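Hi R.,

Here's the chain you asked about this morning:
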Amino acid sequence: MTTHPQSVDPDRIKRITESIIGLPTLPTVVAKMIELVDNPRTSASSLARLIATDQALTARILKLANSAYYGFSREISTVNMAIVVLGFNTVKDMGLSLSVFDVFKLSKRNESFDLTRFWEHSIACGIASRMLARSYRSRFTGEAFVSGLLHDIGKVILNQYFQGEFLAIIEAQKKGATFEEAETGVIGTHHTQIGSWLAEKWNLPRIISRSLLHHHEPWAPGKENCYIAIVNLADLLCHLCGFGHSGRLLPPAPDERLWEIFRSESIPLEEADLPRLQTEFLLEFDKSEAFVSSLHEGRQETGDRSQETGDRSQETGDRSQETGDRRP
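And the predicted structure, written out as tokens:
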């Protein structure tokens, strides 16, 4: 199927992506938290002092640490102890996830793109990426969840700023185009490139930016192809297990080049292992239930606050209108 390019070009999309109005920088607390967690000399107490400056994040971390999964007989009442219980990377993953939800809390409604199901898919992909990295590429276990969570974030940007074009991409799939073919035809670039621009704007580690750019083609020339292949495989597992919906009408088919990457690194993964990996992933997801529930609750609370703000703005506008109507 052939689609024809429209008026939107990559340079325009990049300008919008980099706009501080459209896409704010990460909150200072979260940006600093990522920096601290990535520093091996950081102590739990120094990280706790930073997190304590953010009431919402503090409350969410304490609630997770006190969940039944961690099974402590007494209440954990300090951020410092919560960090010890949860671990640095879990705290980082929580903070960054909540910030992402907050940045995109005003995303436009789209009947063809269910944001709730999209975030379900994204969170699941983060968990699958972390599981696979821990088993086969432990060097980057700390970055794996974020790479999985953000792997399709470019689609949210398209939905928020170019919804007409994004709808055209979805419709083109119904006529036989792949998602990538539809993107090329309609906007001349891909969600992978847009997501990579966002990662650069947020100063996320280069390995994350590169994984967002190449997660559909981890065999592209460059470094750390095996890590990116893990994100690709995690995405595939989420599609096979039916977690959420990414906006893609058909799940991606396994590519032989994916398994070649693993073979080149002497990693024992083949297409025949997919049923086993699906079982392991489902078990891992069940073990992560408390973390997943906390993220979904945080996303819901962010949406509720956004709705309340919108309602107050509407009330203010209504009162202003009433005042104007009463004036002679």
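The CA atoms of residues 66 and 74 lie 9 Å apart.

Let me know if you need anything else.
M.
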